[in-house]
Amino acid sequence: MNRIVLAIRLTAVAVVTLVGAGACTFGPQEHRAGGPAPVNAASGTTGASGSPGPIQPGGTAPAGSRRPSSQGPDRAGSPSPAGSAGPTGSTGSAGSAGSTTPSRLPAGCTQGEQQREVETYLARLGGFGPVEVDGRQSAADCAAIKRFQRRYGISPAAGRAGPTTADVAGRLARTNLASCRAGKGTTFCVDLTHQTVWVVRDGHVLLGPTVTRTGKPGYATVSGSYTIDYRNPREWSTPYEVWMPLWQHFYGGMGFHETTTYLHDMSIGSHGCVNLLPEDARRMWELGSVGTHVRLFGRRPGT
């Protein structure tokens, strides 16, 4: 009997061991979905590994930084930043902050304090669906605002016309594509004043305008004419210890790359680089090459 009990216990231990090993085995570390595979760090330091200083790359906060809690100023009930503009030309309670949501709206779609302003910009930009510039949220307005927010990485993409949505839409609407003196071939255009970027090839706009974030105070991105002289699918910034996906270098420690933080947090900025949304970084990587022209003009406010 003792032998039978012992055999049963040994069998149970073996079964637990095998099942436990299979359930707890960790696979190789995965890269970000859709992101490029890493390259050897030693081979990816050109233009990005100099000593820290005003002209340094790493257009992201140091590794370990977190998305700020203020990432969602377009959330219902959140206050506008100090000094932010109110709704342009809005009149009556329908266009004011805290107005009640019309009954025609779908559940969860609220009206923002900058409703008329956002409606005006989206009507000017086009491409996001019908909007009625009346300062009142409707189901069609909400759908168009959501599409706009999803396209430009605004969180949350809930259709509410808050300060971030109004700021991004306004910068895009005010961007003058003719202000970039693009010649033959492909040109990356950067409007530092409006913090926008677009791509022109032989007079035709292939991308944009879309939003960017450039150097913060003390690390202002340079203006002028340059060319892309080095590219790396995954560049390592030595001074800031952070990967910079889809790196395209043009001057000093500056280059274009996908942002690794919330792009619309303008309080952190970059160290001179031109930060891009993932979708835009991938498209500019496809359109660019060594020798692509770069035109930067204006100056980021506050730098």
In words, what does this structure look like?
This protein is of the alpha+beta class and 303 residues long. Among the domains are: 86-173, Muramoyl-pentapeptide Carboxypeptidase, domain 1 (Orthogonal Bundle); 178-297, L,D-transpeptidase catalytic domain-like (Beta Barrel). The chain contains 5 helices and 9 strands; from the N terminus they run H-H-H-H-E-E-E-E-E-E-E-E-H-E. The protein starts with a helix and ends in a 6-residue tail after the last strand. It holds the Pfam family PG_binding_1. Residues 41-53, 76-103 have a biased composition (Low complexity).
Q: Secondary-structure element sequence? A: HHHHEEEEEEEEHE
Q: What structural category characterises the helix and strand content?
A: alpha+beta
Rg to the nearest angstrom?
A: 25 Å
CATH topology of the domain at 178-297: L,D-transpeptidase catalytic domain-like
Brief descriptors of the model:
nine-stranded mixed sheet, 5 helices, L,D-transpeptidase catalytic domain-like, peptidoglycan synthesis, L,D-transpeptidase family protein, alpha+beta, Muramoyl-pentapeptide Carboxypeptidase, domain 1, single chain, 303 residues, 9 strands, cell shape, Peptidoglycan-bd-like, 22% helix
